[in-house]
Design goal:
The model has no long low-confidence stretch (mean pLDDT 97). A hairpin with an 8-residue loop joins β7 and β8. Helix content is 29%, strand content 29%. The protein has 395 residues and is α/β, with parallel strands linked by helices. The protein has a 7-stranded mixed β-sheet, sandwiched between helices. It has a 6-stranded mixed β-sheet with strand order 2-6-5-4-1-3. The chain binds S-adenosyl-L-homocysteine. Residues 205, 208, 228-231, 233-234, 249-252, 255, 278-280, 299, 301 line the site of S-adenosyl-L-homocysteine (SAH). S-adenosyl-L-homocysteine (SAH) is lined by residues 205, 208, 228-231, 233-234, 249-252, 255, 278-280, 299, 301.
Length: 395
């Protein structure tokens, strides 16, 4: 035991979640801090009785005051440990059968690197450092990523709001190589360009890969409506799968411009309809016009960024699902998603069931949907599960 390590001592009773290996230590659980740790420093976390619980990364600005690196007192937190975790995360992505150049290589807590996200687009890596602990080890992590993947180009797209919550300065830019032009990838036979510098998140919704493939599988002969289409992910998958026509809606002109480019790159005989609009208004207008579709995708942004927003978000989810169900022809399919971590899957299912009831239609659920296999969740950190969806068939 190294007595010089700084320590957090928890309030009585607050050791329970750590004993179950949940990796977060909330500020409200901490009774005392000793040894003057700096942000990102490794601290020993001790129970009120002084017993060792974990080594964790200290984050004095955050409500999540520390994130556990290890529950094993014998395991040091050093460059070798961090680099080995990066290499192991990358190795675990082999053999997942992703059939894509876009893959999540590191997913935070699930890969024992809390706050670190890494996506690979062909030979371009995009990283996010979203907590003080991984920020401290950023050079080690980048070096280990380059060694494990052979990629020479690494770009940082750390989410500004998440870094702010951690008291970290906003950071974006090339860490290795230069700022990339849009990167060309192929996913399940569909070509996309990914705007790593200006796009959402790390540039692309890698997490929806399996669900795009499922849409492609059901698309043949169907008239498709893709709401919140971003750069055209589900639309192009549907066209690849043989959709007879497609209409896609997004409020972002930039996203739609890239979507139309992506469509051209794939060489479909005819262009589809790209509509810049608010989905809520567009669905209403389409209902008024008596339009119908055979396959609808609803993949909205996170309506509930936190627990306080759940009620309002639930109303928004219900509204778009209700309208989409009414726009579906009998036998039509609805792929409906929520990426709000604050809305668990059973609540989402209840919201959609309410929409089915209020729309006065009958529907059956074919399957629950989730993120791909490269987005694992630690069984001791259920907060890591955020993307959920349902596949419904209107009767
Ligand atoms: N389905 C996409 C990802 C969707 S991200 C994919 O697989 O790639 C959410 C998208 O919704 C963003 O592109 C954003 O511009 C758009 N958006 C957010 N609010 C909107 C609204 N009210 N109406 C239309 N588009 C909206």
């Amino acid at each position: 035991m190294t007595r010089s390590e700084p320590a957090l001592v928890l309030r009585p009773g607050k050791e329970k979640s750590l004993l179950r290996r949940h990796p977060w230590i909330y500020a409200t659980a901490v009774a005392q801090v000793s040894g003057r740790p700096e942000p990102g420093d490794t601290v020993r976390v001790l129970g009120a009785d002084g017993r060792f619980l974990a080594r964790a990364a200290y984050s004095p600005a955050s409500a999540i005051r520390a994130r556990a690196w290890t529950f094993d007192e014998a395991e040091p937190v050093d460059a070798a440990t961090i680099a080995a975790r990066v290499a192991a995360a990358v190795a675990r992505r082999e053999g997942l059968g992703a059939e894509s150049d876009a893959l999540r290589l590191v997913f935070g807590e699930a890969d024992a690197l809390p706050g670190c996200v890494v996506d690979r687009y062909a030979d371009q890596l995009v990283v996010q450092f979203l907590a003080a602990g991984v920020e401290r080890w950023r050079d080690t992590i980048v070096e280990a990523l380059v060694a494990a993947t052979g990629c020479a180009s690494v770009y940082e797209r750390s989410d500004a709001a998440a870094r702010e919550r951690e008291g970290l300065p906003v950071r974006e830019g090339a860490l290795r190589g230069t700022a990339p032009a849009p990167v060309a990838i192929v996913e399940h036979g569909v070509r996309y360009r990914v705007d790593v510098v200006g796009g959402h998140k790390t540039g692309f919704y890698v997490d929806q890969r399996d669900n795009r493939a499922l849409v492609a599988r059901f698309a043949a002969g169907r008239r498709v409506l893709n709401c919140f289409c971003y750069t055209g992910g589900f639309t192009l998958a549907a066209r690849h799968g043989g959709a007879t026509e497609a209409t896609s809606i997004d409020s972002s002109a930039d996203a739609l411009a890239l979507a139309a480019d992506n469509e051209r790159d794939n060489g479909f005989a005819t262009p589809s309809t790209w509509l810049q609009a608010n989905v809520f208004d567009a669905l209403k207008a389409m209902l008024a016009e008596g339009r119908t579709f055979d396959l609808i995708v609803l993949d909205p942004p996170k309506f509930a960024p936190s627990a306080q927003h759940v009620e309002r978000a639930a109303r928004a989810y219900k509204e778009i699902n209700l309208k989409a169900l009414r726009l579906l022809a009998p036998g039509g399919l609805l792929f409906t998603f929520s990426c709000s971590g604050a809305i668990p899957v059973d609540l989402f299912q209840k919201i959609v069931a309410g929409a089915v009831f209020d729309a006065r239609v009958d529907a059956q659920m074919l399957r629950r949907l989730a993120a791909g296999l490269d987005h694992p969740m630690s069984m001791t950190h259920p907060e890591g599960e955020y993307l959920k969806g349902l596949l419904l068939r209107r009767m």
